[in-house]
Design brief:
The protein is of the alpha/beta class. It is about 30% helix and about 25% strand. The protein has a domain of about 150 residues: Rossmann fold (3-Layer(aba) Sandwich). It has a 7-stranded mixed sheet. A two-stranded antiparallel sheet has the order 1-2.
């Protein structure tokens, strides 16, 4: 990371602390991951602003505070299996890998999947990161159960397939609402049959597309 970006990154970390992020492991990971690598073209110079930025396929790289907040709610620990729905730029997966998690991430846009897979392999050649092209709303049952599931798009309701793949005691962090605005939910699996659902703050994500999301026929 260049001195220019390092200074901007340090300022971002100070901003995140001021906004209430207290998990030092999350902040440390965000200080280590070069966010500029996940932002293209003219937006590179804005990589460490606390804003969402556009990427290809009409998607976005989430606001750093949102990434930090969701990661803090997820409470990932080294060695935890984490399922991410919506790879996007790959930035959230990189944060999880930096924290020592085993990351399984799914993206429905092939161009984004391919670009993120390339960057993640370059930055984390020995970390356990598996990328999949496909419908994230049905999860990835092969590697379930997951200690954490993080959904980086807004769902009309919580996909049942994801709940089934969540380990007992695991956290699922997902925005639920309409196609423009949602409420962040933290769902904790208490046992085989029951889940605790904690609705939190208002957020705005791109729609979650798939069989158990919006436009279920796609």
């Amino acid at each position: 990371m260049s001195r220019q970006f390092q200074d901007a990154c340090n300022q971002l970390i100070d901003t995140l602390r001021a906004k209430g992020i207290v998990n030092e492991n999350v902040l440390r990971a965000m200080q280590q991951v070069p966010r500029e690598r996940f932002v293209s073209g003219p937006f590179k110079q804005r990589a460490y602003e606390d804003v969402a930025l556009p990427i290809d396929k009409h998607q976005t790289i989430s606001q750093p505070f949102t990434v930090a907040r969701m990661t803090e709610l997820l409470e990932p620990k080294p060695g935890d299996a984490i399922l991410e729905i919506g790879t996007g730029s790959g930035y959230q997966a990189a944060i999880l890998a930096e924290m020592g998690a085993k990351v399984y991430t799914i993206e429905r846009h092939f161009e984004l999947y391919n670009a993120a897979r390339t960057i993640l392999k370059e930055l984390y050649p020995i970390a356990q990161i598996q990328c999949r092209f496909g419908d994230g709303t049905i999860g990835w049952s092969e590697f379930a159960p997951y200690q954490g599931i993080i959904v980086t798009a807004g769902a009309p309701e919580i996909p049942e397939a994801l709940l089934k793949q969540l380990a007992i005691g695991g956290h699922c962090i997902i925005p639920v609402g309409n196609e423009r605005s949602q409420v962040m939910h933290c769902i904790i699996r208490e046992d085989e049959q029951s889940f605790a659902d904690y609705p939190l703050e208002d957020v705005s994500f791109v729609p979650l597309i798939g069989k158990q999301g919006w436009n279920g026929e796609s």
